[in-house]
Amino acid sequence: MYNRIGVIGNKDSVLAFNAVGVEVFDCTQPEHAKELIKRLSKEGFAVIFIAEQLAEQISDVVTRAKTQPYPAIVAIPLDKEGTGYGMRSIKKDVEKALGIDILFNRED
Fold first, then answer.
1. How would you class 89 by CB atoms within 10 Å of its CB: exposed for 0-12, middle for 13-18, buried for 19 or more?
2. CA pair distance 91, 25, nearest whole angstrom
3. How many domains does the chain have?
4. Which domain holds residue 74?
5. In this structure, is residue 94 part of a structural domain?
6. Would you give per-residue pLDDT tens digits along the chain (108 residues)?
7. Does residue 93 fall inside a structural domain?
């Protein structure tokens, strides 16, 4: 059953998620993040939030995961300054699904 939510990132950034019932995983290394995603996928996680910086470094794993119904992997900015990877990823997914850019309504 897919009913768990997790967040992967550095300890200081993810600890607050624990207060709202999200399972937190302290991780700063791309190889460790890859292993965590594989493990959490097998353990029935429905959603995995991951720090943008890590997601960008393992974009191949994130892209591959999008071909499966679960888990949904969402890149989020966890540091003071995000990289923009999460928003670009969501924009790309919406454009793919709808065929148009409804988020920004512009050509890149």
1. buried
2. 26
3. 1
4. 4-82
5. no
6. 788 999 999 999 999 999 999 999 999 999 999 999 999 999 999 999 999 999 999 999 998 988 888 999 999 988 776 778 877 887 777 777 777 766 666 555
7. no
